[in-house]
Design brief:
Elements (H helix, E strand, L loop, with lengths): L2 H17 L8 H11 L17 H14 L7 H13 L5 H14 L1 H14 L5 H4 L3 E5 L6 E5 L8 H10 L32 E2 L7 E5 L9 E5 L9 H13 L4 E3 L16 E5 L4 H4 L2 E5 L8 E5 L5 E6 L2 H16 L11 E2 L2 E2 L1 E10 L2 E10 L27 H4 L2 E4 L3 H12 L11 H11 L5 H23 L6 H13 L2
Parallel strand pairs: 2-15
Antiparallel strand pairs: 1-2, 3-4, 4-5, 5-7, 6-7, 6-13, 8-9, 9-10, 10-14, 11-12, 13-14
The structure holds zinc ion.
Amino acid sequence: MTVEKVCSWVESLVQQAGNVGMIASEDRVYCRNQLLKQLGLEDFLPDAAEKLEADIPHILEKIIEAAVEMGKIEPMLEEKEQLQASLMNIFVPQPSVVNHRFYEKYEKDPAEATDYFYQLSRHSNYIHTKRIAKNIHYQTSSAYGNLDITINLSKPEKDPKEIEKEKQRKKDTSYPACVLCMENEGYGGRIGHPARSNHRLIRVPLERERWYLQYSPYVYYNEHCILLSEEHRDMKIQAAAFRRLLAFVEKYPHYFMGSNADLPIVGGSILSHDHYQGGRYTFALAKAEEDFTFTLPKFPQVHASVVKWPMTALRLQAEDRQLLENASEHVRQIWMSYNDPAREIISHSGEVPHNTITPIARRRGETFEIDLVLRNNRTNEEHPAGIFHPHEEVHHIKKENIGLIEVMGLAVLPKRLETELKGVERYLLGETEAVEEIHRPWAEELKGRYGEINEAEKAAAAVKEETGKKFLQVLEHAGVFKRTEDGLQGLRLFIDALK
Ligand SMILES: [Zn+2]
């Protein structure tokens, strides 16, 4: 690796940053010099033959490789990420400037503002576009519409040596308090906490509180964003949460905004920081139709229905968002203490609550709409992981929490399935030893149904389709009122209780 080469890549990076509109021509020499300083280079001697006409993530990778070779950083994932983030930070304006530009565009059109911020977050490599591109993504059809399946391959894996090294170097630090805190804006990172030098947040005041908008660094769907409270406080589903979700979609009608439930098992992975997730993507749940309507006598102007969906989703619609908030809170209040022991729904164990809601708010034209997905996180001997949680027979595909994203119809499946599902395909093609033990009963059942498959393509298609069916089963397990005659009876009783 020659210094000339590195200098050429530095120049390529500056060039690309200019091409995508991150910097103006006046900024080029300044940015080059900042990059040189961070890389410990005093001279600038680009090798004209080495110019890289690649995209930003690719050029960055090359520069990071060079930094390792030059001994500037150790070959550890965390150090590489820190350097990457701080190099890209050079091209990203300060938060006040980003916010100013965002709101200038917002005045014209909210979608123009989010477009600007989404592109900035991508170009700055804060969103790891190159890694996300590795994810396997497809749709499978079901009686409830097309379900999305993603096998998550984007999070980099560390080798055990690296983990050991990290352990030795890890300090007990509590700043920022968590990965969602706004104090991550521009934070350089440390062992065990991601680098966020190139991270910016949009100030989004909501109902007299300070909230912040960012994108997920590992977006699972188009414009997957996160809305977080300034205060590091627990997730809480209550009237104020409905109010904020609706207030947000009033300001950003092209985005939906939902929340994970606030209890373990049925909630997301972070319960300790109040936050919501939204974006510009129409999930199967949003497309799902009304199964039947019902009336809420206390809220005659609210249109209420049960959605045709494997989980129990009530859909409320109104022109007036205050009314919708009140109706949602009414449903929540009743649900919080609702019991149907014959159907395993018990609201409390002593003082410990089990009932909660996964809410999703969106606009339909001028109408506000909110889906209230009823959840219960109780466990029993038969289902120690959760009664309304994927049951054991589907754990070989999914045993993680069924959070907001799954509720809406997107399965985020673990990395291990990439190779394991290939094994199932090979099994269907006749390689009986190819399948892992945990998938064997399923693979055998598929072989019984599909018979002999000779073409690799057909085997792959069958496994995709069947994985989709498993996901549907996962959602059915998570549903509190099953879509059976008996479940429907139970649901009708609950609806009666809303009167
Ligand atoms: Zn926090």
